[in-house]
Give the backbone structure.
Amino acid sequence: MKDQALADARPTYVSAPSVSGEDMVKAIESSRKSSEGSLESGNDPFSKGADPFANQLEAAIEASLRNTSSRNRAGHKDSRHDRAGALATETKIPDLQAEYLVGPAKWESVNAKDVPIKNVTPRNMPKVAILEHGLDRVLFNPGVHWLQDPRSAVFNFDPYLRRICQPKDFDYNALQAYKTSSKDQSLFKITHRHNAKYMGSTSSMTSLLSQFYFLISAWKPLKTNHLSGAFAAQPKGFTRLSRAPSTIQLVYKGNGIYAIDADKSFDSSTVLLQLGKSMEKMLTSTPQEFSRFTKKNSWQVSQSERDAPEAFNYITADSNFMLRSQLDCEDPRLPGKTFDLKTRAAVAIRLDVHNYELNQGYQLRKTHGILESFEREYYDMMRSAFLKYSLQVRIGQMDGIFVAFHNTARIFGFQYISLDEMDSRLFGSAVMGDECFKNQLRLLNRTLDEITTKYPEQDLKITVDTDESVQSMNVWVETMPLGAAASERGKDVDLTFDENGAPEMQQGAELSLWQIVCYSRINNSTIVGPFELNDRGTDNWDLRYKIGELKKPHMMNEYRRMKAIQAEILSNDEERNAVEAATATAAAEVADFEENSEEAAARLRKEIQAAKAASRRDTMRSNLRRISERGRMHEEDQERRQGDSNFVIWEPKGYVKISSAPASTLFSGSLASPTSPIAATPSAILTETAASINRTTSLNLTAEVSGESISEKMVQRLRETQSKGHVTTKDDIKSTTTTDANQNISSRDNVVYVRPSDKKTRLIPLVDFDLIRKSVTSGLTDPAEIQDLNNLKVYHGELMSAMKPFDEIQWKIWMTPPQRSVYAKMSRGRLERMAREMHLPNVSGLADTELCQRVFDQSPVFRCQLAVDYFYGHLHRVMTGQADAKPFRSLDEFVAMDPTEEQLERALDGLSINQKAVDTFFKKMDKPISKADGLKTILLKKLYASERLFTEKELRAFGYTRIFDTKKFPFQGDLMTLLRPSATDEKSQLDIDHVQENTSLSSDTMGAKLP
């Protein structure tokens, strides 16, 4: 009762009088005297009961600020973004257009306290992913975290994250398929079980609920006062795309249940949508696990993994809604436990997404600033994405969002943004955010009830458009007699578009219009326009609204204009430019015949404005491309300076240099205590002892070895350094492998291999290469070797996950380089090892230079022998990925196999044929050829050239018969007849051996002497 009395005694927001500065001083003095009197009487001076004037003083200050803002706004016409710059004052209450009203409409009221929200997520929910690579520390440290510090070039996280797997290399079919609300049977069963009427997901609900927020908040501006001065004059409202009319399809599913699906009329698959899926997988997977989802390795992903259910959170809202939200990631240390993963492309990419490759040089080089800064991306997210993100987080009952900033080619940094932070930017407080969410749901619930009452058990298309000038919204309802796209009846219905790019109505469709108006009652005071609620939750907000159906004489024309505006905003640039060109031509024609017509003049003005907008857009894109080109040059210069030098990575206990090609014993020694402060964050390390960390494990190269992230493994390796301040260098490396095959191998002996993800060459010490080779072929049992292998996973995990026991030929080819200069740098131990593999006699007594020349002279012949052996002993297993596959007994069996492009690419990798050779082949083709035929031709040419070096006797000595009949195929060009019978006269002059590695046995190569 006391609280209610205090609330009633408090003056309302709008009725408090404006006060002058003199009156303000008097009020403060009076308040001070009252406080002093309260002290003398022993009361608490900070309580409202002890100071009855405190409420009046607060109200006077608020009223003064409102009146000042109103006076400033009266003489300043600003854009729609800043139209609602201050608290609203009492004004005329909006109402429905009575002259068009169909039937009665009455005012209703809703208070957020009367809208229940309940979690109904099943207990047997699938496991939610967790962050890998040590990214979890971003969750507990506010602000932006650079992946690589721009000044010192020190990596704060693993350098593996720097490069992004491009969409052409990632197999999106290996991921779980997304299901819309109407096709989710689990969602339907839960909806039916809880007697709900409408079911939806975050993707279908957020744009719709955003429009209802614009309605009840009257386009309340964002809070940008925390940004730097560079953004002081920038717009504070939502972007044009966010404000565009929103369309959904209401699909009737039976049993009185409707599914809410997002309208896909303007959707197109862009690189940002694709990267969002693959980067989410990258952030929550180890490098080995992620490599399984690339196109080359996706055959390892079983069908059960592809069909595995995803983790969702389910809530019931206002008794009628059942809403679903996918759970991307979790961390039990967060207050909300789960959070959403977001990938944010830089502004240069977003403004020209269809030409994203031209802007991949655009970089984020600073924290603050209008361009090339994290602050710019944060500001853009506030205007375009924060409202959508906050709704998704609330539906999923999550804690916040984890954002990765990128330019589609590389990642620049990370930031965790909690729901409270988003609320402070959008609404001013979390209290208002929660109440707005509940009121939005109630308004939507009432609106859908009105519509489904008129059109029961039907598929409907609903478009909502919030008015820009008054607090009202138009709700357009279009019946779908042929059925929605997600329904069985409508799945085969063709979607057609009009001249404005808007989708046409179905034949026989009916159009209806509802209008919604509203205003707020805060502490019994009427508010029309933007307002704020205090963060203490003591304000009482009642939302008053009225919903009514209208019947206008020119309703169809108004609907078409609205849909044309929607199409212009949501369509891509190519479609928009075509529409603008057509509209400009039509306007010019009208002006020729109606020079004195006001309508023609208005059209011309509109076209001029559109042309100016397009010109500004093109100018901005041109400037961003110049910035991107400058950034690309800067990045290339950085990479040249980096070269093969070590990466420097920050660790909690200091710095450690990790070579791009670490040896197996880079980190050795005893473990620190598990209670060391360095292990305070990861819970997995806290509970493990030194003995358990050193345990022997069975190794599976295609799956995650342990639950630790890469950062935790790096911390573990840091503990294992022999001395606290010592950094191991390449000179300190000594192999622990003491087999006869490599006991004389020097630390300078390296192997060059091709990394599967980006086709770039990587350098790895030979001892480490042998260790990986041993683990794949025969397995490891020695705990020390297993620990060394775990250390190698950080930088050579892709190699380890891609290698199979039947890739022996590829390993031997990597061990036998074609370049003469490489042999001159080899140690004698490695040369003797290669001589034994090539079966060279009497080499032990040769001098080092002579031995080097003998091995190099034999290397082309040995590589060709490997190619022949590859066809008979390995090709069938490499292409099928199965160790028990049947070998090819003849050339005809191979040609008849009809392999896929992925299989052929794996086959070329098995012979170490690089991408440059493939590109050169296709460029030199004088006639079109399919990619599969081209790859098969390259493989056959390689085998043909290798086999021609050997006589029949030599082939029989190897245990093989000749693959290619010399009478049928006297020249390489004749191989084309195997693929295209009509092309018998085509003789390609391309010799794949010369393109690939110049390994032909010409006299100048065989007789060349090493320097």
Q: What stands out?
A: The chain has a mean pLDDT of 75.
